[in-house]
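Continued from yesterday's entry.
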Amino acid sequence: MIRKSISCALAGLLTVVPALAFFLMLLGYWTPGSEVVVLILIFCFAVGAVWLGIEVSEILWGER
C-alpha cells in the first residue's frame, strides 16, 4: 500500500504543478521563458493525469 501512496503522490504532483503554473500564467504572475517550457508543462500534465487515473482505477476496482 505504501507503493500506491507514493505513486499517487508523484502522479498528483505531475498533475497539480503544471496546472498551477498554467493558472499563474493566465493570471499574469508568471511568464514562461520559452515555448519549450510550455510544452514540457503540457507533457507533464498529460502524463500525470493518465498515471493518476490508472492508479485511482486500480485502487477503486482492484489490481487486474
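--- second protein ---
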Amino acid sequence: MNELPKQYPFIHIYPQQKAHQPVIIKGNTEGLCMLINTLISAIANPDNNAAAEVFCGDAEFYEVVVRLVNTHEELSPLPYQKS
C-alpha cells in the first residue's frame, strides 16, 4: 500500500446522504490534527470562521470551514434535505 506523505494534511469528509446516516471523516494524523485545531479556533474566536487548508486522496487542495452558530436558522438547510 502507498503511505500518505506525512508532511501533507489529508482529510476526506463524507456527508450524510439521508437522515440518521453517520458523517465519516478519514484522515492522516496531520489532517486530523489540523481539523482539531480548526475546531478549537472556531470556538475560541466565535465572530470569525476558522479554516483548515487540506488535501484529499488525489492531492486536490480544498478548505474546510468551521463556523460556530447559535440558532437553528444558522444551521439550515440540512445537507440531506432538498430545497
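Residues 29-44 form the longest helix (16 residues). The chain is about 25% helix and 25% strand. Will compare against the first tomorrow.
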